[in-house]
Amino acid sequence: MVVWGVVRAGATHPLPADVPPTLAGLLVVVDHAVPPPEHRGPVTVVRVQAPATAARAFAAGIRAAPAAADAMAWFDAAPPTSRAIERLTAGLGARDAAVVASSISDAVKQVQGGLVVGGVPRDGLCRPTVPVLVRAAVARERLLSALAGAHDVFDALAVAGCAVAVVAPGTSAST
Fold first, then answer.
1. CB of 15 within 8 A of CB of 7?
2. Which residue from 59, 76, 14 is spatially nearest to 39, judged by alpha carbons?
3. Percentage of residues in the chain having pLDDT higher than 70
């Protein structure tokens, strides 16, 4: 599988020195006010209008991705390790996307009128984090329009109706 990475870069989003070998290349999205970052490896700089929100940056990366890309890996700062990309690729299966997510173990409470009125069951809840791996065809055909109105990439995956596999952090790929 040919995987291209997409990362938002700038003053608050620094880049590491190298591209992980499991990525065919890296699309670095910066807004017009930011100078292009220095980077080693197969890197393409993509410019967007400020502010370069996560959703806008990922959309710009999808539009700039080579036609040969099978999948796009979104991460919002430093590229993931080769192992993380391998785990997401293995966890993808026949689904549209795969995300790293951990279960929620902290207490979650419902508040009304400034008062705690009860607890929220945590069964079935998770906290998704980057990286996110999305099939390139799905990204181009369905995710782009969802990203236009989304607050974040995870919301856009839901709006686009993507089947998303969950990979536990730091373990073998599992769905």
1. yes
2. 14
3. 76
Regarding pTM above 0.85, the answer is no
Identify whether 172 is part of a domain: no
The residue range of the domain holding 135 is 3-167
Closest CA to 58 of 1, 138, 161: 138
CATH code for the domain of 8: 3.90.550.10
pLDDT of residue 116: 95
Q: Could you report the per-residue pLDDT of 136-147, keeping only the tens digit for each?
A: 999 999 999 999
Asked if residue 51 lies in contact with residue 31, where contact means CB atoms within 8 angstroms, the answer is yes
Tally the domains of the chain.
Answer: 1
**Residue 105 and residue 165: Cα distance in Å, rounded?**
20
- Give a yes or no: residue 174 inside a domain: no
